[in-house]
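Risk register update: the risk of archive-format incompatibility is retired. Evidence:
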Amino acid sequence: MQAVVLEQHNGQTHAALQSVDPARLPPGNVTVDIDWSGLNYKDALAITGRGKIVRAFPMVPGIDFAGRVHHSEDPRFHVGQAVILTGWGVGEMHWGGMAEQARVTGDWLVPLPEGLDARRAMIIGTAGLTAMLCVMALQEGGVTPEAGPVLVSGASGGVGSTAVALLHALGYAVTAVSGRPQTYDYLRQLGASEILSRAELSAPGRPLEKQRWAGAVDTVGGQLLANVLAQSRYGGVVATCGLAGGADLPGSVMPFILRNVRLQGIDSVRAPAARRLSAWRQIIKILPHSFYKNVSSEIPLSDVILAASQLLANEIQGRTLVKVR
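Archived output:
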């Protein structure tokens, strides 16, 4: 089978497209023929070696994939069944989706929901699942469309762009934050009613600022997240799922205490199966058909290594779909 393989020599990560014997696949009770995968930020860090993502070498990257069951020792899955995998350390500790086959444990798989095909499932992918979990957190925290505008940071990325589309479809007024002016028209097409430059939210601010946001989906972290919290309205909810702007939070507890603001962390890697299925089913109902055309670019497996560098250089917008077969 063809696979992108990461190896480490003298502390340096080397990525190459290789022909690999399927017998080398790691242990698991379900083998999947992969049709589609997606290039995520975490994948790009792993492939380029710019982040400490991979826990063991050699490694096949790819934190998500969609395909059909090739062999199963798990009674929940049968040969030919369409399945999705996102998270669970795949592409980090266990060989992942940038290959024509994967062998995994059945506990990590979700049956492909009715109304979705494998290609569209990977346009959504880990990024879309994470975005839906963020939106669910806002809804569960009582943030309604009538409560006021919702901010989405890192809006031109995979999670951010899907969050913009989901929130707009649900009737929210969405303010998108992006550091790339060339993406503004794209964000408006997804449903953003206002766009802010990342620079407007990147400078250190006061512990409490003017109340602006009823809720927020943050994919950046760092100073930007601190500023969003300081600008949140009373009772606001901020769902945070990324740290591209830094893992620190140089802010104050004042928004939490004086404005009853809630900061909700979102993890899609180990989200329970029932939560995942609920998110997938809601995504299918909410996302407009136009989303699948506007949000993705498609590349073959052979272009993954180059695309990883382009993603980290901020040269890619939206979701990058990988056609494995």
